[in-house]
Amino acid sequence: MPVTLQDIADRLGVSVATVSRALAGYTDVAPATRQRVLQAAQEMGYRPNIIARMLQKQRTDTIGFIIPTFGPRFSDPYFSELLAGIGNAAAEQDYDVLVSTCSPDTSEEMQVYERFVQGRRVDGTLVVRTREHDARIIYLLEQQFPFVAFGRSIVEGDFCYLDVDGSAGIREAIRHLISLGHRRIAIILPPENLMFTHYRRLGFGEAMAEANLPTEESLVAHGDLTEHSGYEVGRAFLTRDDPPSAIVACNDLMALGIISAAQRLGLTVGRDVAVTGFDDVSLAAHSHPSLTTVRQPIYEIGRRICEMLIHLLRGETLEERHVILEPQLVMRESCGAAVQ
Hints:
There is one protein chain. This protein has helices at about 5-10, 15-25, 30-45, 50-55, 75-90, 105-120, 135-140, 165-180, 195-210, 225-240, 250-265, 300-315, and strands at about 60-70, 95-100, 125-130, 145-150, 160-165, 185-190, 220, 245-250, 275-280, 290-295, 320-325, 330. The protein has about 350 residues and is an alpha/beta fold. It has three domains: about 5-50, 434 Repressor (Amino-terminal Domain), CATH 1.10.260.40; about 60-165 and about 300-325, Rossmann fold, CATH 3.40.50.2300; about 165-295 and about 330-335, Response regulator (Rossmann fold, 3-Layer(aba) Sandwich), CATH 3.40.50.2300. The chain has a six-stranded parallel sheet with strand order 2-1-3-4-5-11, sandwiched between helices. Strands 7-6-8-9-10-12 form a six-stranded mixed sheet, sandwiched between helices. Strand 1 (about 60-70), helix 5 and strand 2 form a beta-alpha-beta unit. Helix 1 (about 5-10) packs across helix 2 and helix 8 packs parallel to helix 9.
């Protein structure tokens, strides 16, 4: 049987209220009495009733994180790194993380958010891979439920977010490819409804215009951020009568799929075709060839959005409610450049 407050009170000959207030750290309990209670609780193996404490505090000390991914599992190292950052930051502040996965833009996804909010299962939540007209953000704003987003949106209303300057990142990748002599450059964008798709396409167009190069619509395609879609779209580009000499993927998994497609076609990546990605997940440095990519600090982003949310939950003022980070181009073998 678990040890109760009554058991400790009986052992010490004090009231249950005294034991409860001593364990909670109330200052109206004499220091000597509090020390006796703490020692007895430790010796008897007392464990507090977490559910009762949550009811008393009217909070759960838990953060929600719903991963928008297809299928019951996720194998994207991007989310693994992000979740590691979130989890470690939460643990340091004595918060737990309740994680769920759900296919994006579905009624089931919104039902999960509603369960989190209406059931008060979490104190606040994190929103990732934001969309232009994001139903999740609209709902959370309407409910006045605390959240922080990784990404921007055109939804009306002020909310806290952290984002990476995707336009700047893609511009740097395109400029680098142009400096290597490439003129016919293709791009594989994320799904059209994602907000960062807009910024990365903008960076592509700006860099091409800056070099007085035309943007061929037939060299602009969308993938679903998986390795499989990178393979399929990359193969379609490379088997054209007039294939591009370089392909920019808007995440590393699609870039790895392009590399696989090129190698299956007998091409040497870095010589016959240049490939770049975005994210710099752990696989990027160890692919064959190693992947030129735009680095965003995924683990640190996870930590920061979690810390921002905890500040909100504690009623603290954020120094910056809207944070934009600058990404960094990492040059490796897949574009034919020297390894950094």
